[in-house]
Specification:
Layout: E1 10-12, E2 18-21, H1 29-36, H2 47-55, E3 58-64, E4 69-77, E5 82-90, H3 99-108, E6 118-120, H4 127-131, H5 152-162
The chain binds coenzyme A (COA).
Residues 88-90, 95-101, 123, 125-126, 128-129 line the site of coenzyme A.
Length: 163
């Protein structure tokens, strides 16, 4: 069950080998959870949390025409004023072919994501990717606040292991 209803769309890459689709029913939760639970930002995230995060987001899957899901991103948004881009990845064998740059173009042009006053994201080292579609460092960092608990999934995993 998704917060966002269809109709859903599909985009084909210039080389014809990949498609992007915004239909949540098509996503491969094994691939998404497999990647995110090993990632530097969401290590040990529970599968159910990933599932719930997708249900409350506008999700984008990248698929190899010859195979399964090879990339992902999701946008947490009110579709009116604000969007937060999260959980962007391309699986290792498919990197370096422009897939994430294309994914960012598709997301930026998505009809539900037009006219927003502010987009935000957090990244450790991929600033160059997002700069290509207009993201900049915070102009006034003193005006932006966060409340963050980076260990939350690992604590829950360790508690579970201790039981
Ligand atoms: C980051 C990632 C999504 C890039 O995907 P990709 O499809 O290989 O990227 P592309 O081929 O479209 O190229 C990305 C562009 O951004 C640039 N870039 C900037 N920071 C980068 C980074 N940390 N990793 C990869 N590319 C980066 C590249 O140089 C490239 O620009 P160029 O073609 O002008 O040289 C992919 O490496 C990945 O999944 N990494 C692990 C997860 C991750 O770090 N996700 C981002 C979290 S914010």
């Amino acid at each position: 069950m998704s917060f966002f209803s269809g109709p859903y769309s599909e985009w084909t890459h210039a080389d014809g080998g990949f498609v992007i689709c915004d239909d949540p029913a098509r996503l491969d939760l094994d691939v998404i959870h497999g990647f995110l639970s090993q990632s530097y930002w969401a290590q040990a995230i529970p599968r159910e949390t990933v599932s719930r995060s997708i249900a409350g987001s506008l999700p984008f899957g990248v698929y190899a025409k010859a195979g399964g899901q090879v990339g992902f991103a999701r946008v947490v948004t009110d579709c009116a004023t604000f969007a937060y881009l999260a959980d962007v990845f391309v699986c290792d064998p498919y990197r370096g072919r422009g897939i994430s740059k294309w994914l960012m173009q598709v997301i930026s042009a998505h009809p539900k994501l037009q006219g927003l006053r502010r987009w935000m994201l957090v990244t450790r080292d991929a600033q160059g990717l997002y700069a290509g579609c207009g993201f900049t460092a915070l102009a006034k960092p003193e005006r932006v606040m966060e409340r963050v608990d980076p260990e939350i999934y690992m604590r829950a995993r360790d508690r579970e292991a201790d039981r």
